[in-house]
Fold GTPase Der.
Amino acid sequence: MTEVDGSWSDESEFTELDKQIDADTDAEETQLAQPVLAVVGRPNVGKSTLVNRILGRREAVVQDVPGVTRDRVAYDALWSGRRFTVVDTGGWEPGATGLQGAVAAQAEMAMNTADAVLVVVDATVGATTTDEAVARVLRRSKRPVLLAANKVDDDRLLADTASLWSLGLGEPHAVSALHGRSSGDLLDAIVAALPEAPRDGDRVAGPRRVALVGKPNVGKSSLLNKLAGEQRSVVDAVAGTTVDPVDSLVELDGEAWRFVDTAGLRKRVQTASGAEYYASLRTKTAIDAAEVVIVLLDASEPLSEQDLRVLTMVVEAGRACVLAFNKWDLVDEERRYQMVRELERGLVRVPWAERVNISALTGRSVRKLAPALRTALASWDQRVPTGQLNGWLADLIAATPPPVRGGKQPKVLFATQAGIRPPTLVLFATGFLESGYRRFIERKFRERFGFEGSPVRINVRVREKKPRKAR
């Protein structure tokens, strides 16, 4: 964008400036449908470590404890020019009950919906009864199956992998996910087995990305399952069940959305350790990658420090925001009266956020989320033409000029909306504008132009007004 000296001759310059801004705005890339590879196996055989090796980066949460991965989690991968989706799953145990049963159901669903399946076996242990049970299920499937014999860290274990032929899944690929041994050969085999396009046609190009965030056990996974109409995320009464961000394509109100269920954010990262620490980092990454964030709050409890910390992260990331007050079925008249006072104090940073009262358990008002998401995203993408913005701003400043600072009253010379996502205003002024006056401008800007559900950033550039040249 060209530098502006704070003076202009006519409104045609506004039009030229708008054209420059529009030319500088990058178009959104269309997300193309990709074939899906599901990685399955029993707990602690190194599935998540192997997923990270396939991706070439640390994405899946890894810890030397069985059962860290509980949901099916999708990641984008690239090898030899081919893009595909890798789905990491929790350990598959036939006949499991409770939380482990839900994890096993997620792994089985991944096997049923994937285009190819990679079975991971611990080569140091050999084929177990669970591995044989998985093999029996997959031999009846009509999709390609590959077998990875993991933890082959040196040549002494190569001979032991021969016994895995008995599973009837073809040649075992001896690899070491930890050290990267033969990972390139395995990737070549994966790419060769995957079809050019996904088998199922439900993968929609370019859905808007929505992150579900909140403190632990507030009901994020339950809400995702209710919206999807099926068990997409593992749900348990124990706080911290979700560790990885879980991507799910959900059809809501006739439109496809990509929802990301995230791990609950604790009070401080320092209180977390191991998998919890990395899960918190991935939650922040999910917020940054999202377009709009649903902050889930427990309506039956007072606002906590964790709730406010989550809101701060969303505001600082500049994402559109919807506040969903969950467990509304537990709220009585007395609690509603208390909430009004709490929200006046606690939500002072986000008075612009869309609010919806829901119950993930009963499904109350969850369909109202789609209109709220659309409103927030429309505001996040909204741009006010420069001429219209300056006409409004001139009237506002004439009625309420900036406060005097250091004996001088700063003048606002010019304004433009320099960007969207989030909407960003740049004010060119002859002096510094107090934060209170900037908040006043933002409040009046919202009253005039809307922008419900989206943060608005206001930047000030201080410069002296150039004197007009004599003609």
